[in-house]
Amino acid sequence: MGGPGDPPEGTPEGGPGGAEDEYRSVVFDESFIRAARLQEYSAEERMTDHAPAVRRRPPLHRGLGRQALILVVLIAVAFGTAIYMGVRHPYSSPQARRPVEPLRMTVIPLAPQGKVPGADDAETLYGHSRAAQFAIGAEGVPLPATHSTAHFSDSQVVTALTTAKDYIVRSSLYPEVLTEREVNPARALLDPDQLDQFDQSFDHPAADGRHAPTGWLVRIDPSRAQLAGDRIRVQGSLNATEADSATLEVTADHTFVYALRPTGAADAPVSLFTVRREVTFRFSRDDLRTHQVQLVTSYVQAGPLSCAEDSSAYLHPLLAGQTAKAGGPAGNNPYETDNTPALCGTLATQAEPDV
User: What are phi and psi of 31, to 5 degrees?
Assistant: First the structure.
């Protein structure tokens, strides 16, 4: 007998109330119905002649289509921005690099007017000389206050000054460069286009204004003299200017005072040897990026030296008690900045220690 809600004859086999009802768990919710591709016409619509019972619905526009459209728009905007920035770059376009010029150098030996003064220790000599107030080592090569130029930022100016200082220190203060024939510390900072001239200068030294090793660095004859201490006295300045829109220039003017004694004679008296270097450096934008330098001019005065000896390959200092065989026509003081000696000069007496 059927239940209270069943027909008198019971539930028909296969009917919706049967035990095998496979559709009982299917829920036809609103989203399912709206997503159907086929839709039945209403009774009124079916009364129209030859109207089909169902019609095909257009596919729904889901969220994926909208996201794809947004992605395409973003890609188009990014591509357009890249093209715009390529056409209107905020920085100036790179200019042609100025050709690297060979270094022009002048080395002036300064001969003493009498015997070279000496003392038992370096500090005594320093204390009685113009170098008494000089800084020691790299502290005597300070960086000046910096500012940007029309075409170079403040950081680029600092890079130029710092690299120039590095070259000055390596080529004038490193003991292995001064008296041990080492050149790599200075060579490593050179623009590659100047390496051939540098190497030719050391392979085949010549007093031709282009190939004197002493124009590149301070190089004391190791067979004659050795350092009597590592407290080298230094005083000078650095100055940076913009040569043109693609080039920075740094001028360096420093006086170095070395305490020397004869090679292998640890108990021999100490004497002072003075070298004044005026160097002009040039920096392209590539040089600033790689921290390398171009040397444009190098003007060197050094003494006490004998004008009879060639000072292009090595500086051959006269030591305590020695005198020069020949001198120049006038006294020149490497501590002063307003004198220009001839190819050989005389070391002014006030430039020597008063002992």
Answer: -65, -35
How far, in Å, CA of 271 to CA of 119, rounded? Answer: 7
Percentages of the chain per state (helix, strand, coil), in multiples of 5:
30, 25, 50
State pLDDT tens for residues 55-92. 565 555 555 567 777 887 888 888 777 776 654 444 44
pTM of the model as a whole: 0.71
How many Å is the maximal CA-CA distance in the chain?
A: 147
Q: Which element (helix H / strand E) includes 51? A: none
Token pair in block for residue 166:
């590095």
CA dist., res. 159 & res. 289, Å (int):
9
17 Cβ neighbours under 8 A, 6+ residues apart: 6, 11
Indicate the DSSP class of residue 142. P
- For residue range 260-276, list pLDDT tens digits in order: 999 999 899 999 999 99
Which of 9-18, 52-61, 81-90, 287-296 has maximum average pLDDT?
A: 287-296
Q: Please report, as a single letter, which amino acid is at residue 212.
A: A
The per-residue DSSP string of 2-58 comes to --TTS-TT-PPTTSTTSTT-TTTT----HHHHHH-SEEEPPHHHHTSTT--SEEEPP
Amino acid at 115: K
Q: Which residues pair with 241 in a beta bridge?
A: 249
Q: Give the length of the chain.
A: 355
Q: Are the CB atoms for 260 and 226 separated by under 8 Å?
A: yes
Among 288, 279, 143, 141, residue whose Cα is nearest residue 216? 279
Rg (CA), the chain: 44
Write down the pLDDT at residue 93: 44
Q: Kind and range of the H or E element at 171?
A: helix 154-172
